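Handout, section 4.2: multi-component inputs.
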Amino acid sequence: SQQGEEDPQALSIQEGENATMNCSYKTSINNLQWYRQNSGRGLVHLILIRSNEREKHSGRLRVTLDTSKKSSSLLITASRAADTASYFCATGPVGGGNKLTFGTGTQLKVEL
Amino acid sequence: GAVVSQHPSWVICKSGTSVKIECRSLDFQATTMFWYRQFPKQSLMLMATSNEGSKATYEQGVEKDKFLINHASLTLSTLTVTSAHPEDSSFYICSAVRRNSYNEQFFGPGTRLTVL
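Output:
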């Protein structure tokens, strides 16, 4: 079953604006990861945040994790048309090894 | 590094035939490989976990006799869709976990299967 729910399901913004996507999950986790998928392609790993971390940065990406609310957010700053893709959160359960459960995804469209 | 390939990238077959999809880790040894299925505009659904030298672990609702998984080596796993039917048409994606990597899965580019 799907663990993560993401919102919004779809997001359309102008180039240069920031994009924020949210992910909520139900059970305790070991880590949470964000992936990007271009249409009809495989997934690209963006960032991993561990359950004892609250915030992580990587380039224009900022991820936060609130384990008390069982939620995470992905912020893409100064978006570009090339950021157009689907973004998925995925959770790694406590004691669950490498298994991931993916969220429903957010389709981001960045327009020129 | 950490490149995963899939072959073929797309395949069209007739109903009733079997199709084999390969997943290879090109520059690392994969302790575990995962097979996912994705329908259009939907998320990835884990089908099975494949460990080298042992039987695959299937998720609930996934028919193991329908989706045969063989993890022949630390760099190769195969998924065979047996007696494929139109409802098996989907995007199949594999991922591999690199030895000593912390939970990070490296994904293949996916295989588009269309069953006529």
